[in-house]
Design a protein that fits this description.
Layout (H helix, E strand, L loop, with lengths): L1 H26 L6 H48 L2 E2 H7 L4 H14 L2 E5 L2 E4 L15
Antiparallel strand pairs: 1-3, 2-3
Helix pairs in contact: 1-2, 2-3, 3-4
Length: 138
């Protein structure tokens, strides 16, 4: 499925560029057919943009799937190792190193993880309202 998605989309995007450049080449030839040239150029640009859009949608889908997998791995890694590293998440999910770091920093900002050092994180313990100490309101 990935081959079809990325392969066909890449072919469409690159083919669109070729057609658009051929249209520009034809525009400088002595016998011009402006309707054909405009059609080729517009078709090439549309093919390029369509192929690029499909590639971007596939990448976004892959990133969302990787983030969901990473979220599922957090409790297990925290229980087994205590400390979560970028490499641990990267090895178990389809996220790249940069995507993993960005996702971990978003988790730190959301308060679900605590930063222990460079590329080292710990899961923040969740306390409920019944577990919190009573406040002094006298």
């Amino acid at each position: 499925m990935n081959f079809l998605r990325y392969g066909c989309s890449s072919f469409l995007a690159l083919g669109g560029l070729v057609v658009a450049f051929l249209a520009l080449y034809d525009a400088f030839q002595p016998n011009r057919n402006w309707g054909l040239i405009a059609g080729m150029f517009i078709g090439g640009v549309v093919a390029f943009l369509g192929g690029t859009a499909v590639i971007e949608m596939a990448n976004a889908s892959r990133r969302r799937r990787g983030e969901a997998e990473a979220a599922a791995w957090l409790p297990r890694l925290a229980a087994e190792h205590g400390v979560i590293t970028v490499q641990m998440i990267e090895d178990r999910t389809p996220l790249s190193a940069t995507q993993t770091r960005r996702w971990l920093e978003r988790e730190v900002a959301a308060g679900r993880l605590e930063r222990l050092g460079p590329e080292r994180y710990a899961l923040v313990a969740v306390t409920s309202a019944s577990d919190s100490p009573p406040s002094d309101r006298a």
